[in-house]
Design a protein that fits this description.
The structure is a single chain. The protein has six helices and 17 strands. By secondary structure, it is an alpha+beta fold. The chain has a six-stranded mixed beta sheet with strand order 5-4-15-14-11-10. The protein has a five-stranded mixed beta sheet with strand order 1-2-3-6-7. Helix 4 packs across helix 5. It starts with a strand and ends with a helix.
């Protein structure tokens, strides 16, 4: 049995597995230092990973913008590609364009406990003093194939650990946090991330993406279909579509909530590049947030809409690369009923692509 731990360790540098390390470069835009959501200034990420084989492969991922709270909301937008999911807090974001809390990602049946734990944690923070209304934001994916989802293993202490361990720098990917028990496109998947530096209206800005990948469809890489059989991965009989993909985008570009909604829409579109099926049972959500607080009297003016194309291109590229990272960085996992899913193997993939 392994106790819950924040941020499972990364593979050693001598074992390149991320897409870019393998020469799979998406687009021509430069990445941030860590090619991760945390390249956006003020964004931190933490995981609590729960692994008790073969019964539990689950966890929670926390995306924590510095200083966010009910008294200092950040502009945000949300887009629903297919709404078979539980994105707690989505309606208030859509109505007001404001994010009041960190964003947490977890397992479907654990989402409600996680939301309650997030509220309790934030009420204890200085920014929560005197709060009488709060809109927690929690997304989820169904890890029921590889984890005992009905046990609802994610508890308050796991949420607090993820929040309090959130940091900048490299972000653990694959079978960590809210991605521990997930599958996508016929492979083991999980958490993936990527970033881009963009010149926007004469100003250099950063955009970062983090995906919680658990969706159906058929993988495409560089325009080529990649089936499990084509790369030597055991083929399994497909079950019902019960997946989702939560895509979280952050940027320090000066955008308002309406423009961030446009960015969130492109984030969901980006899943099509890797072959997303957008099936009946898939919850495909994009959530985009800006790090410039609402109501700030000083600071740069909002970017005109007709200057946003470089940011739209960047989010499409970063989503595609994030999904590939989630597949490449995962590890083989067997669930409580004997179901096994394997990650996307690097060497056979490169051989297939030529």
């Amino acid at each position: 049995m392994r106790a819950p731990v924040p941020d499972a360790p990364q593979p050693p540098p001598s074992a390149p597995r991320r897409a870019r390390d393998l020469g799979l470069v998406i687009g021509d835009g430069p990445t941030g230092e860590h090619n991760a959501l945390t390249d956006v200034p003020g964004i931190r990420v933490g995981h609590t990973t729960l692994i008790r084989p073969p019964r539990v492969h689950s966890g929670v991922t926390a995306i924590v913008p510095d200083g966010v709270g009910p008294g200092r909301p950040l502009p945000a937008g949300v887009f629903v590609g297919n709404g078979y999911g539980k994105l707690i807090g989505a309606t208030q974001i859509a109505e007001l364009g404001a994010l009041e809390t960190p964003v947490l990602l977890t397992s479907t049946l654990s989402a409600f406990r996680v939301a309650d734990a997030l509220v309790g944690w934030l009420l204890e923070q200085p920014e929560g003093a005197g709060v009488r209304s709060l809109n927690p934001v929690v997304g989820e994916c169904n890890d029921g194939l590889l984890s005992d989802i009905r046990s609802r293993p994610v508890r308050e202490e796991h949420v607090r650990a993820a929040l309090e361990s959130a940091s900048g720098g490299p972000v653990a990917e694959g079978c960590v946090g809210g991605g521990t028990g997930l599958t996508a496109l016929g492979f083991k998947a999980g958490i993936g991330t990527s970033s881009r530096h963009v010149s926007l209206a004469g100003t250099d800005v950063t955009l970062g993406v983090l995906v919680q990948a658990n969706f159906g469809g058929m993988l495409r890489v560089r325009g080529r279909t990649v089936t499990p059989a084509a790369v030597g991965v055991p083929v399994v009989e497909a079950g019902p579509e019960v997946g989702s993909c939560m895509v979280v985008v952050a940027t320090d570009a000066p955008l308002d909530a309406r423009q961030l909604t446009r960015l969130a829409r492109r984030a969901v579109y980006g899943l099509a590049r890797v072959g997303a099926g957008y099936g009946h049972g898939s919850g495909d959500y994009g959530l985009a947030l800006g790090t410039r607080p609402l109501g700030t009297p000083a600071g740069p003016a909002v970017v005109p809409d007709d200057r946003l194309d470089p940011l739209f291109a960047a989010v499409l590229d970063a989503v595609e690369e994030s999904v590939l990272n989630s597949l490449l960085m995962a590890t083989t996992t067997t669930g409580p009923d004997g179901d096994t899913r394997h990650p996307l193997p690097a060497a056979p993939l490169l051989a297939l692509l030529g």
